[in-house]
Amino acid sequence: MPSRLKDKWVLITGASSGFGAAASRAFGAEGAKVLLGARRLDRLEQVTLEARQAGAAEAHFHVLDVSQTASVETFVAWAKVQISRAPTADAGLHVLINNAGGAQGLDSVLAGKDEDWEVMMQSNVLGVLRMTRAAVPLMPHHLGATILNIGSLAGRVAYEGGAAYCAAKAGELQITRCLRLELNGTGIRVSSIDPGLARTEFATVRFKGDEARVNKLYEGTQPLVAEDIAEILVWVASRPPHVNIDEMLIKPVDQAAIHKVFRRQ
Ligand code: NDP
Ligand code: 8X3
Fold this sequence. Notes:
Layout: E1 9-13, H1 18-29, E2 33-38, H2 41-54, E3 58-63, H3 69-84, E4 93-98, H4 114-135, E5 146-150, H5 163-182, E6 189-195, E7 198-199, H6 202-206, H7 211-218, E8 224-225, H8 226-237, E9 247-250, E10 255-257, E11 260-261
Helix pairs in contact: 1-2, 1-8, 3-4, 4-5
Residues 13-20, 38-40, 43, 64-67, 99-102, 123-124, 150, 152, 195, 197-198, 200-202, 205 line the site of NADPH dihydro-nicotinamide-adenine-dinucleotide phosphate (NDP).
């Protein structure tokens, strides 16, 4: 049976690394048409090539900063032009993946920095709102179109130093739930995909390039890899159109809980 995602338009934010890059290749391998956004254009160009090599029917990229409303609107206007180039009966944006985001620092609330808090709220919370507001008008009704928001284990549990990031990802989860209510009747599906410990560039960004700290985080344990999440995103987006996977929590087997991570000696 051909993939339900073949020739479907899939928009991925934060496609320049980690989950977003792996998802670009995975949706590409399904024969989808991928529209990729992030701030680092050199990385996006490379991922676009990889998506084409994987089998994407089309793959294009454009600069995107989800923390800026003007950038989001320009990006979505560009996406609309791509989608309108070859109108078909089921044209429109089939999958929106709100993935751009991440953490900045691991400071306690008392030591927290305004600039770190602002970056986390801008990308993980306001970025999802802005992208969704701009892109949903491109999504057809009653054809299995899907919004996949990338949340986190951090949105469901608390840990020391995580206040702003945990709040941001709890915000993402609540946005997803509100949106599902607001879009009820349109046939547009909304999911929160919430990973635990995963080895991407996430920790390098959080620890601002301190690789010793990054290595310590993953020492002796087997984290998720980006492809694990990409495979799940493809699976969720290719359920029959009447099926909505509301929320999914995915952790490595070694991570029984946020504070209980098995480490080999
Ligand atoms: P990466 O750091 O590898 O990827 C983050 C991506 O987000 C990059 O492509 C980056 O691109 C993009 N991004 C960040 N800020 C912006 C912005 N303002 N505008 C546009 N793009 C932006 O980490 P992950 O792949 O791990 O992270 C992806 C998502 O998964 C994030 O939302 C993260 O919070 C979440 N997550 C990560 C987990 C993990 O342990 N790795 C676990 C649970 C959730 P660029 O810098 O080029 O703009
Ligand atoms: C990333 C997972 O546990 O590092 O969202 O906050 S965690």
